Amino acid sequence: MAVLLWTLAGKPNSHLPRPLIFLLITLVLVLVGYGVLTPRSRMLESLGASAAVREPDSLQEATLSRMVYPQPKVLTPSRTDVLVLTPWLAPIVWEGTFNSDILNMQFRLQNTTIGLTVFAIKKYVVFLKLFLETAEKHFMAGHQVIYYVFTDRPDKVPRVALGPGRRLQVLRVRSYARWQDVSMRRMQMLSEAAEQRFLHEVDYLVCADVDMQFHDHVGVEILSSLFGTLHPGFYRRPRQAFTYERRPQSQAYIPWDEGDFYYMGAFFGGSVPEVQRLTKACHQAMMADRAQGIEAVWHDESHLNKYLLYHKPTKVLSPEYMWDQQLLGWPPVLRKLRFVAVPKNHQEIRRSDPESPPAGAPESSGLAARAAGSPSRATRS
User: Fold this and answer.
1) Nearby residues of 211 by Cβ (< 8 Å), 6 or more positions away
2) Catalytic one of 221, 274, 301, 320
3) Rg (Cα) of the chain, in Å, rounded?
């Protein structure tokens, strides 16, 4: 090529007119450029460049739905009476800190599916109907939901009318003689189910206790990579009052000078991979304790608190999402009560279930026992 250009441009004794020489040079450069650029264009198209060019069109379509809402004001905080952000910059969700319309639109664009897991073992199957009926009214309204009911009594699962995009799956599991074992084995069952099916069926998991009911809106504002819920008995109290596991021999041990919040074991969740990691870690820690003859003071909840201390949740739910109105009333700081304990007579439940624990046995590691910060009733090893 260099020789050709040299020949055309300045070969000695050339009789070609100078304008014609420049015209030929220009023509050669155009042909060379076309030959180089055309293969490159074809290569980019094969790598998906054409799809990248079309991407703005799809983004434009996604923003066609117009939304009108008050402008957020940088110098006007949403709430001044409560903490709304943790030291690691995770939001704490209270009424007045989010806009449901904006959040619903964002999660619908992602075509999000949420799994809600609940364990209805032995006598606790009696709470399942109210749990599901109130979930249909208040839980993730307008989104795709799969209810996963873990139970040893599939024939007792009630028929509840489900809305569009919502379905129920019954997962049969074995029961255990002690309620503590039922509570602790939940982590193992959730970990295994997450690996085997949840990863392929849902985007987020919400893990809840069955002896509760949805009382008001619980929506996508709770969804995050990993979330925990503040225990209603401890959200006002210092860390020294938390009923963490304090024995160094336990995998759930938390020293007296550590701890952010006390999280409730009755309502937690996140993305499926994160929930799978959490439940697997808690189960392994409980098995390590068992091998040493130790049982954490509040069983799976103790291990959940240890995990969330060192694997900070990306969102924290206020006590609006875990409350017992019968025990605690309705303080002004809670503008809504969203997920609340069901008033119940444990003695009556025992009489209706021949497989229930004997009278005097503790009912659960949950809300009623410590809603007011009362000392632990659990048996220490």
Assistant:
1) 124, 127, 341, 342, 344, 364, 366
2) 301
3) 31
How far are the Cα atoms of 102, 118, 238, 345, 374 from residue 369, in angstroms, in the given order?
A: 38, 20, 19, 14, 7
Structure-block tokens of residue 239: 């860390």
Cα 264 from Cα 232, distance rounded (Å): 8
DSSP assignment letter at 124: G
355 catalytic? Reply is no
User: Concatenated DSSP letters for 201-234?
Assistant: H-SEEEEE-SSEEE-S-B-GGG-SSEEEEB-TTT
Of the candidates 138, 139, 120, 133, the residue with the CA atom closest to the CA atom of residue 161? 133
Is 221 in contact with 140 (CB distance < 8 Å)?
no
pLDDT digits 0-9 by tens, 313-371: 999 999 999 999 999 999 999 999 999 999 876 656 555 554 444 333 334 445 555 55
Cα–Cα distance measured from residue 91 to residue 43, given in angstroms and rounded to the nearest whole number = 45
Using CA atoms, how far residue 106 sits from 33, 55, 109, 226, 363, in Å, is: 46, 18, 5, 18, 41
- Give the residue from 98, 274, 128, 258 showing the smallest Cα distance to 194: 274
With a cut of 70, say whether residue 6 has pLDDT above it.
Answer: no
Q: Distance between CA atoms of 75 and 247, rounded to whole angstroms?
A: 46
Could you tell me the CA-to-CA distances from 222 to 97, 270, 313 in Å, in that order? 12, 9, 12
Q: How far apart are CA 69 and CA 162, in angstroms?
A: 31
- Tokens standing for residue 330: 């309705």
Tally of CA atoms within 13 A in the half-sphere of 250 that contains its CB = 23
Residues 191 and 278: their CA atoms lie apart, in Å, by: 8
